[in-house]
Design brief:
By secondary structure, the protein is an alpha/beta fold. It has 2 domains: 199 residues, Alpha-Beta Complex (2-enoyl-CoA Hydratase, Chain A, domain 1); 47 residues, Lyase 2-enoyl-coa Hydratase, Chain  A, domain 2 (Orthogonal Bundle). The protein has 11 helices and 9 strands. The strands form 2 sheets. Strands 1-2-3-4-6-9 form a 6-stranded mixed sheet, sandwiched between helices. Strand 1 and strand 2 form a beta hairpin. Helix 1 packs parallel to helix 3, helix 4 packs parallel to helix 5 and helix 9 runs antiparallel to helix 10. The longest helix has 20 residues. The protein is globular and about 65 Å long. 34% of the residues are buried. This is Enoyl-CoA hydratase domain-containing protein 3, mitochondrial.
Length: 260
């Protein structure tokens, strides 16, 4: 069985994590497949938006604990394997934010531990109203330190710390209120809403979205003064794009732009 499925519809690529019997856990194979797919899509100029979803009854249950326990059998007790695993996972997560196309998480069922990290990492997220989210590793004695990185960059610190230290799950409405997801929708509307969001992005000038996504994450790490200086330069770069000139002229002339 193919562990990651890809289906392209127009300018939208849909990736489906396809290990339902493991709740789409981020196994070694799944991490490699995801990173490879994101690398491939990043080079595909025909794709303007990506939807990431899971098959079966869950979005993603986090790391594959059976594989992790098997890693303990090495002479070092698994230290080298665990370090490599978390490094590979972090690289995959960062690839999502460095690729030019926005990535939308289409979430259902559960998104736990590194699965919740995956939702927090995606640029946008739409979830069905029966989804549960958690960074619940503390319940089995493993604090979700790497998921914490993405989570604390999405939601209020105190809310994140409570989730991390108690293992408490939150529902879709609370996830939306905290800023973890963009939209909470009825299960029957989940696929439609994710597609509509992707289509709205796909209609925009790809070079402008690429420039903007890169700047969005870069400026977030800067001081206010540094961010204004940097984004001012980005705006200049964007203004000098031929298609941006056409877009502005089209707006002023009350017509549709003829982008190349």
């Amino acid at each position: 069985m193919t562990i990651l499925l890809r289906e392209d519809t127009g300018h939208i690529a849909t990736l489906t994590m396809n290990a339902p019997e493991r709740l789409n856990a981020l196994s070694d194979a799944m991490l490699a497949a995801l990173h490879g797919a994101f690398d491939q899509i990043a080079q595909d100029s025909s794709i303007r938006a990506v939807i990431l979803r899971g098959s079966g009854k869950a979005f993603c249950a986090g790391h594959d604990l059976k594989e992790m326990q098997a890693g303990r059998q090495s002479p070092d007790g698994g230290a080298a394997y665990f370090k490599d695993l978390f490094d590979r996972c972090a690289a995959m997560m960062q690839r999502i934010q460095s690729m030019p196309q926005p990535v939308i998480a289409q979430v259902h069922g559960i998104a736990t531990a590194a699965g919740c990290q995956l939702v927090a990492t995606c640029d946008l997220a739409v979830a069905s109203d029966d989804t549960r989210f958690g960074v619940n590793g503390v319940n089995i004695g493993l604090f979700c330190s790497t998921p914490m990185v993405a989570l604390t960059r999405n939601i209020h610190r105190k809310a994140a710390f409570e989730m991390l230290t108690t293992g408490r799950f939150i529902n879709t409405r609370e996830a939306q209120d905290l800023g973890l997801i963009n939209r909470a929708v009825h299960t029957d509307a989940l696929e439609r809403d994710a597609q509509e969001l992707a289509q709205a992005i796909a209609k925009k000038l790809p070079s402008a979205v690429k420039i903007g996504k890169q700047a969005f994450y870069a400026q977030a790490q800067m001081t206010t003064a540094e961010a204004y200086a940097y984004t001012g330069d980005v705006m200049v770069q964007n203004m000098l794009v031929d298609d941006t000139n056409e877009g502005i002229n089209a707006f002023l002339e009350k017509r549709d732009p003829q982008w190349s």
